[in-house]
Amino acid sequence: MKFDIISIFPDSFQSYFSSSIISRAQKSKKISIYLHDLRDWADDRRKTVDDKPYGGGPGMVLKVEPIYKAIKSLCKGFRVKDSRFKKNPKSKIRNLKSRIILLSAKGKLFTQKEAERLKKYKQLVLIAGHYEGVDERVAKFLAQEELSIGKYVLTGGELPAMVVVDAVSRLIPGVLGKQESLANESFSSKDYLEYPQYTRPEIFRASGIRHPKSGIWQVPKILLSGDHKKISLWRERNAKILKKEKET
Q1: Where in the chain is the domain with CATH 1.10.1270?
Q2: Picking from 6-10, 72-76, 87-91, which range would have the lowest pLDDT averaged per residue?
Q3: What is the CATH T-level fold of the domain 192-247, as seen in this structure?
Q4: Fewest Cβ atoms closer than 10 Å to its Cβ: which of 114, 117, 166, 176?
Q5: Torsion sign (Cα): 165, 170, 173, 175
Q6: Region label for 92, one of left (φ > 0), alpha (ψ between -120 and 50) or beta (otherwise)
Q7: For the residues of the chain, what is the DSSP string, one character each?
Q8: Is the separation of the CB atoms in 144 and 127 below 8 Å?
Q9: pTM of the complete model
Q10: Residues of the chain above pLDDT 70, percent
């Protein structure tokens, strides 16, 4: 899997992608992540990639020209189809191995199911918007889809791009070392929340804090029973309880 991320702040990704699972996945060549500065495709000496919005309003809008050039450069065999196909998002680009995604507050909600869908591609091109927004022609003619990580507004698309890379990477064979981890991924793909987790010590004595539940905090006895069938049922039941609590 190859990830190409287009951003005006490519350095903001370095710290996260150079640590933990994502770093190991790159070193073992399970995934490749390439960070691209949108300014590399700007025409003028000042490397201008944004401008004031038509019709007035606050902020600046990322221009369509440099994004078009970036995608054309990064996607092998890239070709925009005739404009009469523009109403069919699946027919915009003649390249089924790549997926061009615009991270946008108005996009479809990114879920585990979406991550499962995206893992089938060889290349994901992620466009991280910034400032007041991105010229709508990027969404209309270039991006094959728009994704959002939640119903809130962020400063830019850099954090959503990291989320997509992380979630999709974990599903690629070999990225997660243990089979148990992969099993948990398939469990979460069924829209369950993960079950409560505990580790040593078995009994923790909390003191010196004002809290209604201060005192002795114990691990549920069933987790210490060694009965794997009962533990599995307990975990599934509590995962559903947590899911219900979140929904309410």
Answers
A1: 192-247
A2: 87-91
A3: Trp Operon Repressor; Chain A (1.10.1270)
A4: 117
A5: positive
A6: alpha
A7: -EEEEEES-GGGGHHHHTSHHHHHHHHTTS-EEEEEEGGGG--STT---EEPPTT--SS-EE-HHHHHHHHHHHSTT--BPPGGGTT-GGGSBS-TTEEEEEEEEEEEEP-HHHHHHHTT-SEEEEEE-BTTEE-HHIIIII-SEEEESSSS--SBSHHHHHHHHHHHHTTSTTSS-SHHHHHHHHHHTTTPPPPP---S-SEEE--SS--TT-SEEE--GGGGS--HHHHHHHHHHHHHHHHHHHH-
A8: no
A9: 0.83
A10: 84
Q: Answer for the pair 218, 229: CB distance below 8 angstroms, yes or no.
A: no
Sign of CA dihedral 215, 221, 224, 229: negative
**Ranges for all domains in the chain classified under CATH 3.40.1280.10:** 2-169
**Separation of alpha carbons 8 and 72, rounded Å:** 17
User: Cα dihedral angle (154, 156, 157, 158), rounded to 10 degrees?
Assistant: -110
Q: Which residue would you say has higher pLDDT here, 248 or 229?
A: 229
Structure-token pair, residue 138 = 């990027």
* Residues 41-54 pLDDT 10s: 999 999 999 999 99
How far out from the chain centre does Cα 83 lie? 30
Write the pLDDT tens digit of every residue in 203-230. 998 877 776 666 888 999 999 999 999 9
- Give the separation between CA 201 and CA 194, rounded to whole angstroms: 21
Task: Specify the fold of 2-169.
Answer: Alpha/beta knot (3.40.1280)
Residue of 71, 38, 75, 17 whose CA lies nearest to 156: 38
